[in-house]
């Protein structure tokens, strides 16, 4: 996958962050399609993104298990 897939994933996650269930589903999809180095970048981004969204904090467990 290209860098644009990571960017697309981030934009989707931003758009669905209002719904924890949707966010979780999209994050699971991202874990399946992104390359390992892209996942590392996503973890860094996700850590910053969910800092102000405590309802999404459990999602870090999802991505850390991959």
Tell me what the structure shows.
By secondary structure, this protein is an all-alpha fold. 71% of the residues lie in helices and 0% in strands. It has helices spanning 3-15, 20-33, 36-49, 59-64. The radius of gyration is 11 Å and the shape is globular. The model has no long low-confidence stretch (mean pLDDT 89).
Radius of gyration: 11 Å
Q: Which structural class do the helices and strands define?
A: mainly alpha
Spans where pLDDT lies below 50 across 5 or more residues: none
Biggest sheet character: none
Please estimate the helix content. Answer: over 70%
* Secondary-structure element series: HHHH
Tag the structure with descriptive keywords.
single chain; 66 residues; 4 helices
Task: Outline the fold blueprint.
Elements: H1 3-15, H2 20-33, H3 36-49, H4 59-64
Task: Write a concise synopsis of the structure shown.
By secondary structure, the protein is mostly helical. It has helices at residues 3-15, 20-33, 36-49, 59-64.
